[in-house]
Specification:
The complex is a heterohexamer, with three copies of chain A and three copies of chain D. Chain A is mainly alpha-helical. Chain A is 70% helix and 0% strand. Classes of the chains: A mainly alpha, D mainly alpha. Bound molecules: sodium ion (NA) (3 copies). Chains A, B, C: GO terms for molecular function: decarboxylation-driven active transmembrane transporter activity; oxaloacetate decarboxylase activity; sodium ion transmembrane transporter activity.
Chain lengths: 84, 84, 84, 378, 378, 378
Amino acid sequence: MSFSELFLEGLQLMGVGMTIVVAFLILLIGVLRLVAAAVRRWAPEETAPEARPAFPQGAGAVTDRRLTAAITAAVVQYRKRRRT
Amino acid sequence: MSFSELFLEGLQLMGVGMTIVVAFLILLIGVLRLVAAAVRRWAPEETAPEARPAFPQGAGAVTDRRLTAAITAAVVQYRKRRRT
Amino acid sequence: MSFSELFLEGLQLMGVGMTIVVAFLILLIGVLRLVAAAVRRWAPEETAPEARPAFPQGAGAVTDRRLTAAITAAVVQYRKRRRT
Amino acid sequence: MEKLLLLWQSTGLANFTWGQALMIGVGGLLIYLAIAKKFEPLLLLPIGFGAILCNTPVAGIGGPDGMVGMIYHVGIETGIFPLLIFMGVGALTDFGALIARPSTLLLGAAAQFGIFATLLGALTLNLIPGFDFSMADAASIAIIGGADGPTAIFLASRLSPDLLGAIAVAAYSYMALVPLIQPPIMRALTSESERQIKMEQLRHVSKLERILFPFAVLVLCVTLLPSAAPLMGMLMFGNLLRESGVVDRLSRAAQNEIINVVTIMLGLAVGSKLSAEMFLNVQTLGILLLGALAFCIGTATGVIMGKVMCKVTGGKVNPLIGAAGVSAVPMAARVVNKVGLESDHHNFLLMHAMGPNVAGVIGSAVAAGILLALVGGG
Amino acid sequence: MEKLLLLWQSTGLANFTWGQALMIGVGGLLIYLAIAKKFEPLLLLPIGFGAILCNTPVAGIGGPDGMVGMIYHVGIETGIFPLLIFMGVGALTDFGALIARPSTLLLGAAAQFGIFATLLGALTLNLIPGFDFSMADAASIAIIGGADGPTAIFLASRLSPDLLGAIAVAAYSYMALVPLIQPPIMRALTSESERQIKMEQLRHVSKLERILFPFAVLVLCVTLLPSAAPLMGMLMFGNLLRESGVVDRLSRAAQNEIINVVTIMLGLAVGSKLSAEMFLNVQTLGILLLGALAFCIGTATGVIMGKVMCKVTGGKVNPLIGAAGVSAVPMAARVVNKVGLESDHHNFLLMHAMGPNVAGVIGSAVAAGILLALVGGG
Amino acid sequence: MEKLLLLWQSTGLANFTWGQALMIGVGGLLIYLAIAKKFEPLLLLPIGFGAILCNTPVAGIGGPDGMVGMIYHVGIETGIFPLLIFMGVGALTDFGALIARPSTLLLGAAAQFGIFATLLGALTLNLIPGFDFSMADAASIAIIGGADGPTAIFLASRLSPDLLGAIAVAAYSYMALVPLIQPPIMRALTSESERQIKMEQLRHVSKLERILFPFAVLVLCVTLLPSAAPLMGMLMFGNLLRESGVVDRLSRAAQNEIINVVTIMLGLAVGSKLSAEMFLNVQTLGILLLGALAFCIGTATGVIMGKVMCKVTGGKVNPLIGAAGVSAVPMAARVVNKVGLESDHHNFLLMHAMGPNVAGVIGSAVAAGILLALVGGG
Ligand code: NA
Ligand code: NA
Ligand code: NA
């Protein structure tokens, strides 16, 4: 390929490339604004549940307080026994 | 290869090997002494700069105190907002 | 293979499989009881030695108190020097 | 213009198939369940993301030269990833409750009936046009009843790699659904008075017994069921790292670095098997159905064995703990505890359920070994 | 004596070529810059050491049977190492500032002009005898302007592996030099009053928006530009691990274990491409020159777009933050902050510059996808 | 019944060979030594477990398609695992004592005589029927005298992979036995007054000297002995990560994640070489014998060189520290300290012994390079 051909192709690439980059990011602006609007409308300021599961099984749907208390109690008791 | 040939080769290997090991480490003694002398002469007791960069970009040349203060302030402020 | 052949083979697999699973775990019950009895008899309530070696070489058989004291002393002293 | 055309031809829009778009939706659904419903997020989030990436048209990320495809080839085709995770599970698991009361192994054994019943179920589905499960397929589907992710992935990758995606999704989804699936069955099969049974406290387990435990399991496995040796071996290796007390560095590496890194890779790689042609068909519906069946049957047989043990011991065993025999550690044990508390506010069954719970892990590894020996090599 | 001769023939001295000796010096220089000047030490130190090891005569450490050569084969030829690092970057990056003010994506877009201008520049160099850059080479060199190490290594390893060493060295060196390169350009293109503009505080970004962000980016990428899907996918996967809040274990693994280990391996492997025949030629000088050009042009177009946004918004945008659009996270944002403080001691632009800064990462991943689609597959 | 027969044929019992059963016992013995006697548990526990897994009949875990076999193929045949461990050792090692007193390198050199004497010893064993060690075998066995696990594994995997299992076991066992092997030799070769010599405190070593040290070693190695460059290069790379002070993330990764994970894998993989046909023969007895010999001779020549240095310096060097020249870091240095304390309760030799101790690591890497150059390539 001669230099001028190559350069022309480069120019083309530049035009197409910058167009796509700008177009893609403008689209992304639009999407992000849509998301923000949707969140503001349908899920304003959710309070995060903050559950962080241990490995390998998740904490699951079971989250009533009594259970947590029970587990804690059982573990404490068991440990106490094991240490003796 | 007969045993005596093999043993002779082993002997040779022993001689050459120990010579090289000793020569190499004696050379290293010399180099280390040179380095020590050079450091004593040209860079006596430098005080280490102690900069430990975060990932992925280094702390760079930018280290004036004002900046650090600014960053801290900005981060604190931003976090405060985010939590609200 | 026709469905009935396949199903029959499946039935067979089920029978053999469950038998083995149960047999294996019953055997394991036996072995665990044997182990428990043996431990109770020959090594009742050992007090664990609790040695956790650093990498890459173990703490070894050398564990008299004097050594530990010596090492600590030496390290402290050396560190002090290095810092000055 | 030529460049623009070339670019258009390289867009996703110009190349999307309906199947890919749907599977990206499935990936999104899995991630939604993982984040919003806390369905086994450690696995389902990477699996869902892997599904999205691997159904991206043109990019070929799940193909032989794509990143995820290569990870699959290295980690799952070889079986190494599930085995490494099993090592980590071993290093994370306290078998003390099982050692203290070995008889709970019977509960772990009984619950494996879910596996073999499901195998028959899968074969029976072949009567319906559209289903054509081979014996290997049926075995892979059945192992969902083991309620053990790594075991299921290991077996399926050996016997029916094409079904791996659906099987992994079913296995982890039902594990997350254990708190919904199990309680009705447990209540139906037990009486109020049975559920109120209090059990004796577990005896103390010495350090030596903990160290000998992996060897006890291993010796049986090596001599009687070598086809289970890779799974059981790595599980017990991890446990020995934990209990030996002399290699804390390695134990921590198995419990953290290795299991975390491998989980990310394994999840993405399993996601690559969620392609439209392999997932969007009637067989997947069958697998989901059979998976639910497997969990139900396993729970039921576990509880029934619990009732038997209750009878035999003269009421010393609360039959509820049999439900924990399906494994799904530690979820199933927690469910037992919860159902028990409904009948007696002061009856904490958690520790008693841990025995059958970890017994279920061993039980399904044994079952996997049997299936490998009889179906895989056969 | 025969043994001694054999040994002499196996010494480095008897086998050194001038090129190897020089390249060992280059490796040493990189390590010096890394340690004494803090030039991106996390990458340049391993790269420099890799160069020393791989230019050791006889040992063949960078060859197909040598350790570093095998690491290159497994990690860079496949593209897996830069992708894993990108996952870690995603897990380490807070996109909050960008989500709060999406318009800063325009700055990240404008700064990518440095990439495409450099592509033309590389082609133009072909007019000088001694240069013979193909379109693929030009594209690989141009991506230096993206100011993003993993993106540059990923693209160069796909399009021009022979230039990889020089490109990686240039990319990381110029990123380290951002505090020297950018300020003069920023000052030249803006007026004192523009530099004093204070910007509104960023709005609060909710957890849900943070979780939806990776999907927003991913959906666009998958549908429109699948060739960017590997890079963007792993970046967004890492970010989702971070923001989902349910897989902290995996997020930590991506941010620490994986990125640290891979950085060591990647650095050594990139160093293996610093061989005399590939590095000690006039093309490398061209690459270094073009790299500097790319950073300058990217900075300038970013600032110019900042001025446009300043006009359009009636003075609500400080044009300086446009310079952060080249990425080089977080260095470029810090430079913006510093230059801003010179004009007004109370004007902290750091948080406002983080938006365009992370937008630049996305922008150059998009640009890389375009170059792959049009040059790589073309 | 057919199924049952198939199952019986797949049991271990039906397929056990005597050799496998015995090797499982050997594996158990290694684990016993690791746990109960604290014999290098970080290596011997995984090696022992690997031996058990790989001697399980039918399963083929150590074979080309088995997990451990694949790990061996990827990590040991390539030499990558021992090199990565050496990098970690470098990152964990403080060479300060050696930099402060470079003359202790002579002690590290003298102790390597154990290696070459053992080489002759291995060749001499060929006179006894049943032994047939090639020069490569002899070199691999001799390196046990280096008292350095990764070096021994690296060299043996290159020269005599068949002997790797026995060599690794011997190397780590004798390292664990250093507190029993060395003291009698040290006492026999020194007088009470020599053992009481107090040494001058070590001078302060600056940060710059610590940073330059890896380069000093590397330059010599690259120019004179490139065959030692992989080992020495990775050792010094790790040390540079540690001492440079600018890449703490990477240094920590080398000291923890990498070395821990690789140790697990390396141990299992080495265990796969403990098969009956390779281990249960008279050669292994020879290797164990020669390994003990190597440690004894190395200790002796180290102490003798210590006596020479004591003479030359007019009594400023305590000859005991020569025994630390065999490496076995930090065990040998502790032994020196202990023996010294027996003669004078206030004479702490530990820090003085660290110099020859780490010099021994360098010394045996040099010796390995020589053996590779003369035997491997020859
Ligand atoms: Na189970
Ligand atoms: Na960029
Ligand atoms: Na040594």
